[in-house]
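Good morning C.,

I know you're traveling, so I'll keep this short. The sequence:
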Amino acid sequence: MIENEFGRNDFVYLINTHSHPDHIGGNQVFSDAIIVGHENCLSEILNQWKDPEKIKPRLLKIVEEYDSELKNCEPGSDEWNSVFCQKVRYQSAYNDLLDGQVITNPNVTFTDSLSIFMGDATFNLIYFGKAHSNSDIFIHLPEAKILMSGDLFFPGGRPSLYEVSEKDAQRWIYVMDWIKNRDDEIDIIIGGHGQIMDKKDLEAFNKSILLKKLELVTK
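The tokens, ready to paste straight into the viewer:
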């Protein structure tokens, strides 16, 4: 798509927002690029791919869950299209495994934050903390006023959180303050599956995070 649109294939960097198969499964296509991810992204990949056979049933289960969800959606509706796209992504990841896919790991990692300067474009990467995975990052492009959120939240600010603790929530608040301080440098939020969102979605996500932190503190 990029080659067709811009007529070039000189990819310098590839950034993994987190370690899930549908986000790292294409790394090997960009063999000449520097692959960047959080240090936990690399460790999660190494741990997950010790035995790819264990990943297959997990992916297949997710595909089956989306199949069941589709039965409760009106065909052709926005909800149906969204669920179907998710199913296709996980089905593709499963098919890749069946074909003997070998993952290419990130070769540049960071702990807290990292800035990449590419001419007139800056990519600020910051670790969000354990949430959707233990390797989630935000990518901020100040010149373009874009924030890339990976799979941390969806339209409406709906968060995607797994097992988390109060300590994790403290990191979230720190990062959301970091983002708030750059409010005038953010107009568009792009989700990890192509969703285009705006500041209202970001604000809703921030409120969800604050509520989750309160819930963890009062447990």
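Safe travels,
E.
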